[in-house]
Amino acid sequence: MSAVATYKGYTLVEAREELATWKEAKRAAATGKAYKIGSRELTRFDLGEINREVAFFAGLVDALESGQGSPVKVYARRSRW
Question: Is 53 left (phi over 0), alpha (psi -120 to 50) or beta?
Answer without folding.
Answer: alpha
